[in-house]
Amino acid sequence: MVVKPDWLRVKAPQWERVGSVKEILRDLALNTVCEEASCPNIGECFSHGTATFLIMGPACTRACPYCDIDFEKKPQPLDPTEPARLAEAVRRMKLNHVVITSVNRDDLPDEGASQFVRCIQAVRTASPQTTIEVLIPDLCGNWEALALILQAQPEVLNHNTETIPRLYRRVRPQGDYGRSLELLHQTRQISPATYTKSGIMVGLGETDEEVRQVMEDLREASCDILTIGQYLQPSQKHLGVQEFVTPGQFDAWREFGESLGFLQVVSSPLTRSSYHAEQVRDLMQEYPR
């Protein structure tokens, strides 16, 4: 068993603010990936009044062995009231930047793209000043569905690569590394003004060289922003941690990514795809499109 090191300890949250966010989420019957995926930063993000909204869930049509989101329940029909409820939460929480993600919905003809569009449009109406980031699945390679989402003009299109090609069959058996890269490439082709983002998790048995190769592949696919974080095992039934990567190694990857030309590389043990995502607003000012 690999022992969790001291650098993975999280700060105690401000519980009063956490309770306020939870109250809004419960009142509007919304799901967050913060809760469904057992994110270690939930206390910090909730205490700062932010959350990553999980739409079309909580049941997922894929069974990735690293992920804590439920895949055993049958996915439900899309809720037509969900976009309005999400937009109301954004308004109440006074969010400057919102991240909207989803479970995989391979059961739907457009993989859920139309629900993303409705959510983006609802947020635009309720909170026009809020910048929008969508963290989307691979859409089974449906580039028409991707174009539909991009037509709604989210400022950031995020799709996580998650791991290195060698580990895909074990870590992401229903995914495809090349398809994930192509999604990012297609995004740039369809909507050049959209900022593209991806994330990978480490500690599953990858080598430094393999991580660097993924970073190079992502830049080749026109990815602008990269997040790198430590994989943590949600439960005994999930994939085990092979290694706790040191903060120094995360710093080395950040420096390498910056040398490749990423606009931003967020790399640390507790980094998650949506961690401090609002910093993209500053990035948009520095690198306008």
Automatic annotation (TrEMBL):
Main subcellular location: cytoplasm
UniProt GO MF annotations: 4 iron, 4 sulfur cluster binding; lipoate synthase activity; metal ion binding
EC number: 2.8.1.8
Record note on cofactor: Binds 2 [4Fe-4S] clusters per subunit. One cluster is coordinated with 3 cysteines and an exchangeable S-adenosyl-L-methionine.
Stated name of the protein: Lipoyl synthase
Pfam families: Radical_SAM (PF04055)
Signal sequence coordinates: none
Gene designation per UniProt: lipA
Keywords attached to this entry: 4Fe-4S, Cytoplasm, Iron, Iron-sulfur, Metal-binding, S-adenosyl-L-methionine, Transferase
InterPro entries: Aldolase_TIM, Elp3/MiaA/NifB-like_rSAM, Lipoyl_synth, rSAM, rSAM_sf
Lineage, broadest ranks: Bacteria, Bacillati, Cyanobacteriota, Cyanophyceae, Oculatellales
Any single GO BP term: protein lipoylation
Pathway terms, separated by semicolons: Protein modification; protein lipoylation via endogenous pathway; protein N(6)-(lipoyl)lysine from octanoyl-[acyl-carrier-protein]: step 2/2
SUPFAM superfamilies per UniProt: Radical SAM enzymes (SSF102114)
Gene Ontology CC: one annotated term: cytoplasm
